[in-house]
Amino acid sequence: MTGAEPSLRERRRAETTTAVARAALDLALADGWDAVTVDDVAARAGISRRTFFNYFATKDEALFHNALPWRPEVLEEFQRSTGPLLDGLEALFTAQAEQEAPDRDRALQVMGLVDAAPELLPGLLARIAASEAVLAEAVRAREGVDEFTAQAIAAVAGALARVGGMSWLSGLQPDPLTSTRAAWAVLRALTTTPGSDR
Amino acid sequence: MTGAEPSLRERRRAETTTAVARAALDLALADGWDAVTVDDVAARAGISRRTFFNYFATKDEALFHNALPWRPEVLEEFQRSTGPLLDGLEALFTAQAEQEAPDRDRALQVMGLVDAAPELLPGLLARIAASEAVLAEAVRAREGVDEFTAQAIAAVAGALARVGGMSWLSGLQPDPLTSTRAAWAVLRALTTTPGSDR
Question: Do A163 and B148 touch (CB under 8 A)?
Fold first, then answer.
């Protein structure tokens, strides 16, 4: 895993899906998701309707495509690392949080969007599950553990990310990096209490 | 916290809400949630429409009232216990799993119901959040930790419960008790790897 450069084709594909996801979110925030059509999203992203359907089956799929994406270089670094798993996971989530260039207002707007249009929830939950599955697969590959173990570890990490993220969004923590570190510190304290391992 | 007996009034109230939640679920499984009215639920539970609204504001609220309930005696035992938090939490989730008299077919039917009627998701997610908040409050009271710490611990425990539950429902584990133990064993292994604490 020395991180071969993605091909031009792969890079263009990634650029297009990112642009489409961004266009979908912008339109949803401006007009409400009900009022947005696939044609609107395609037009704003500068592609044809036909091209849109080469990338996504539905407008909901486009909206959440960029939700919770793993940065490839950050995920690769995790898989290459060889220290204790807990350290590797914390480094992974810390690097994600650092590189996010967090836009708190936008994140809050997205939350408001889903609150106002709960029919978006299944799509968002599917993205969260997909993101957790990618992490579980990375854990399984790095550690050689079984699928259940990998899923449980990914779920625990996801829970910490969620609580950390909400703490930042609610204003309790100044930025995603601080909240990520605080969440992982809780896990370490929970499990290193004297006598807590049997 | 020596567990004072609930009053007759409290017991009757709990019996009624349980009966209503059960009636709502039975009707939803039989007819589809769309077709079920508040009147149907009230009739099946043997109460008047007016009494229904003394307990619940909507039919969705009734449906999920009994989802993920903490058994009072199990929660009290957790709060009374004084050992390491991790042991206390595992004992809490183990006792819940043991006392559940698990009905796998019914649990799978409920999952199918939510799949078929995704408009139920917000209500279900609200119940999950409420259940996690109850646990966080119990952790905060037992340990004297701050709210963020308690929330992170409750979220981690909830993640383990979810992965364990899915593993049982998908047939990988024979019963909720085995899957609960397996999930907690993953957390202990994750955090007791030599060198994983800094």
Answer: yes
